[in-house]
């Protein structure tokens, strides 16, 4: 062969020997099975890793310890009962109530709270939001008389017959009342303005109260309203007055709201006794806020906040204005029993005349507010669990309208600190929860649930995927009567926790036995659970000790909601603070530690059936309203009264005329018949819910049994079954969200629960139906039947 060139093929013939004989006769089969076994082992390894990542770990089941600490569920519960301290709760109370902590002006408290939680062993951080809120600058309220009535054109002949101090009395016994930087009386989101006009008494200022006034031809436009607190959210009083052309609103607290505990009945006022301090004033917001993250556009506020000024007032300083109405216009007794119920100033010379006052007797209301964009600070603490997508969120708000806030909100703040300190002790022993626990100290609740709402909206995708439940504590202690509101899924854990905690006043007996009527209210609004329950569809609860008939009067949003009042009257010895911390700790433990979620789907289904019946009763009451003399107000709860008097179209309204046309009757009949569809859908849901609860109970029994390590496949199977059941439980509440929201209130997505349209705080069930009935809009009511039926069926399918 010649010299190779670039054109020479690189091919050569090479002599080779015979091919070697294969060692195995089934080489191909052996290779196949080797690959198959490797694949099986690989996928088994992935499944094994996934099971420890996403499935409940057997080591955390009841009866099993966590590592070397041996903190099993029984040990954890005992620790949560033993650790809370009345002395510590008093210490936290003293700190939080030592000075003013309005929303956006409490960073030092936020930082202290963060550091304290970290001291307890809980990793924490501060999350800030920029919000649009107001602070008080100046105000005046005066009653003016014109002496020279002949010279009406002159402004020099007006005399001040009464000038309100707009202050709460300084009490030597109560240091909070004399703080130099105490918060003035004002309304959150009230409008600035300076108005002078005759005044009209509007009772509670409900929608129906105003309807009564219109029917009686009482002049409202251009006048100033004076209303008493109660029944409905204060902002709705201002809203309706504004809609009717009134130019200002004064809201006072009538001692008739205090029941038996009044001066008229012989009880001394605070601080000498348990009755209301005459100069106490209830502050509060008049509309929700509109927050955002820095740099994120805010929604327009035009029309979202009041355009007329309003101011809160004590009953002591309301007396001269109410007496100026004596003899002018009809009396409250000329209307109906709703106007005379719970009136408590007759013995002070008030006749409860409606007015208006004559043109020569007017009120000057001056209100100056500064609106600013300012940061709020939420404190967030986290105890990481072993399951990444099952999370419990716990919250209390920190901000207050006043320097004190011993009841609202800082009894809850003190309780939450003791709960976190207790879980910190468990962490120190090596305990780790199955589910992640997120603790939140919210800012801006008083201005419209601002801090919690903004946080929920920001983290909505994560919360929707992972949040199992939200537990709220606002006013933790202001009396000795236990109170609870909850989504029905959570009812069982409330009974369980209260049954395990001893009553401070009844040794040997539980809170469940002695301090509670065992009634659980529906969720409305008014605290930080709103965004979780009504917007995100996360089952929520709210608990606390409230004042009973024999408890001292609680001075809501007043300077007298102070550390001194709490120590002397509200909770001497802070024993109910400790009790509340025990209850709250057990609630959290039952949700965070146990492998199977402590939910009851059947309780939810049963409640839904009752809610459908409740709406049917509502329809019957609207179509066939009872006569006024047949209604015994003394037997009605405040929520029922607020529903009767707060909605647009009540039996006293001119729009509640009998339905006479054949078309209307047919439409109403079709709507009434549609309730059967809802009952049928609930029946099917109940059947599936009962099966799910039975399966869950069976899994709980299996989880309590010891499974040897060599039966690892049984553990994985059980973990998978538990995971499946928990996922079904987690998404039940989400099934009742309607993406378009309620009519006129698209932010509220839940079709079962929402605050009443014209009541505010109190909860309404099936609000779309209720509001359609109130409006006599039967076609829209049937539309809501379709929506609700679809949601119920969706929930059943998911089960």
TrEMBL record:
Residues 378-563 form the Peptidase M28 domain. Residues 674-799 form the Transferrin receptor-like dimerisation domain. CDD domains: M28_PSMA_like, PA_GCPII_like. It comes from the Eukaryota. One of its GO terms (molecular function) is carboxypeptidase activity. The keyword Cell membrane does not apply. Keywords: Carboxypeptidase, Coiled coil, Hydrolase, Membrane, Protease, Transmembrane, Transmembrane helix. Gene3D superfamilies: 3.50.30.30, Transferrin receptor-like, dimerisation domain, Zn peptidases. Residues 675-702 form a coiled coil. InterPro entries: PA_dom_sf (IPR046450), PA_domain (IPR003137), Peptidase_M28 (IPR007484), Peptidase_M28B (IPR039373), TFR-like_dimer_dom (IPR007365), TFR-like_dimer_dom_sf (IPR036757). The chain crosses the membrane at residues 32-55. Residues 195-271 form the PA domain. Pfam families: PA (PF02225), Peptidase_M28 (PF04389), TFR_dimer (PF04253). Belongs to the peptidase M28 family. M28B subfamily. This is Glutamate carboxypeptidase. It comes from Neurospora crassa (strain ATCC 24698 / 74-OR23-1A / CBS 708.71 / DSM 1257 / FGSC 987).
């Amino acid at each position: 062969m010649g010299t190779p060139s670039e054109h020479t093929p690189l091919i050569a013939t090479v002599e080779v020997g015979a091919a070697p004989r294969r060692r195995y006769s089934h080489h191909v089969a052996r290779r196949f099975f080797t690959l198959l076994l490797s694949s099986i082992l690989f996928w088994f390894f992935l499944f094994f890793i996934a099971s420890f990542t996403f499935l409940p770990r057997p080591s955390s089941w009841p009866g099993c310890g966590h590592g070397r600490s041996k903190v099993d569920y029984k040990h954890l519960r005992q620790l949560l009962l033993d650790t809370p301290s009345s002395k510590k709760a008093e210490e936290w109370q003293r700190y939080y109530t030592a000075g003013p902590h309005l929303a956006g002006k409490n960073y030092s408290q936020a930082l202290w709270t963060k550091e304290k939680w970290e001291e307890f062993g809980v990793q924490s951080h501060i999350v800030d939001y920029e919000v649009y809120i107001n602070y008080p600058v100046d105000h005046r309220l005066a009653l003016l008389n014109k002496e020279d009535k002949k010279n009406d054109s002159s402004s020099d002949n007006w005399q001040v017959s009464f000038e309100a101090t707009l202050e709460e009395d300084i009490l030597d016994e109560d240091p909070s009342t004399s703080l130099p930087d105490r918060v003035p009386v004002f309304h959150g989101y009230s409008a600035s303005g300076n108005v002078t006009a005759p005044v009209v008494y509007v009772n509670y200022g409900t929608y129906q109260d105003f309807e009564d006034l219109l029917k009686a031809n009482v002049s409202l436009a251009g006048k100033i309203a004076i209303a008493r607190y109660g029944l409905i959210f204060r902002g709705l009083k201002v809203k309706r007055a504004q809609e009717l052309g009134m130019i200002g609103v004064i809201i006072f607290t009538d001692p008739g709201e205090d029941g038996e505990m009044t001066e008229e009945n012989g009880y001394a006022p605070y601080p000498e006794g348990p009755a209301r301090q005459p100069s106490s004033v209830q502050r509060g917001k008049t509309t929700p806020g509109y927050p955002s993250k820095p740099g994120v556009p805010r929604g327009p506020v035009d029309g979202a906040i009041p355009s007329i000024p309003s101011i809160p007032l004590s009953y002591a300083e309301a007396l001269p204005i109410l007496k100026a109405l004596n003899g002018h216009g009809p009396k409250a007794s000329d209307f109906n029993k709703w106007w005379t119920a719970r009136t408590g100033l007759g013995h002070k010379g008030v006749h409860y005349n409606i007015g208006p006052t004559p043109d020569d007797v007017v009120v000057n209301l001056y209100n100056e507010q500064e609106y600013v964009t300012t940061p709020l600070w939420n404190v967030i603490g986290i105890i990481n669990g072993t399951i990444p997508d099952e999370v419990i969120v716990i919250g209390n708000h920190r901000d207050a309208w006043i320097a004190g806030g011993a009841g609202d909100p800082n009894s809850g703040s003190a309780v939450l600190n003791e709960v976190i300190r207790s879980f910190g002790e468990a962490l120190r022993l090596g305990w780790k929860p199955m589910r992640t626990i997120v603790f939140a100290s919210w800012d801006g609740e008083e201005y419209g649930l601002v801090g919690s709402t903004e946080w929920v909206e920001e983290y909505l995708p994560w919360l929707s995927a992972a949040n199992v439940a939200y537990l709220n504590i606002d006013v933790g202690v202001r009396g000795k009567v236990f109170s609870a509101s909850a989504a029905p899924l959570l009812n069982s854990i409330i009974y369980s926790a209260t049954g395990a905690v001893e009553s401070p006043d009844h040794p040997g007996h539980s809170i469940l036995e002695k301090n509670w009527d065992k009634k659980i209210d529906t969720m409305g609004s008014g605290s930080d659970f709103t965004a979780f329950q009504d917007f995100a569809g996360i089952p929520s609860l709210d608990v606390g000790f409230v004042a009973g008939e024999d408890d001292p009067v609680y001075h809501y949003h007043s300077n007298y909601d102070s550390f001194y009042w709490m120590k002397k009257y509200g909770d001497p010895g802070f024993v109910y603070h400790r009790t509340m911390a025990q209850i709250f700790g057990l609630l959290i433990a039952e949700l965070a530690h146990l492998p199977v979620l402590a939910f009851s789907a059947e309780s939810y289904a049963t409640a839904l059936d009752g809610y459908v019946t409740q709406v049917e009763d509502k329809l019957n009451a609207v179509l066939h309203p009872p006569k006024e003399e047949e209604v015994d107000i003394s037997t009605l709860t405040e929520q029922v009264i607020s529903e009767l008097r707060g909605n647009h179209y009540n039996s006293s309204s001119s729009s509640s005329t009998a339905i006479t046309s054949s078309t209307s009757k047919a439409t109403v009949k079709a709507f009434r018949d549609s309730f059967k569809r809802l009952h049928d859908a609930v029946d099917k849901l109940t059947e599936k819910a009962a099966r799910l609860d039975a399966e869950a109970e069976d899994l709980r029994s299996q989880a309590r049994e010891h499974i040897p390590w060599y039966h690892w496949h049984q553990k994985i199977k059980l973990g998978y079954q538990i995971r499946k059941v928990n996922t079904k439980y987690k998404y039940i509440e989400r099934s009742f969200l309607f993406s378009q929201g309620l009519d006129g209130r698209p932010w509220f997505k839940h079709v079962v629960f929402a605050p009443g349209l014209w009541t505010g705080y109190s909860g309404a069930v099936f609000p779309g139906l209720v509001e359609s009935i109130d409006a006599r809009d039967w076609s829209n009511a049937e539309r809501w039947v379709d929506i609700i039926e679809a949601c119920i069926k969706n929930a059943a399918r998911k089960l």
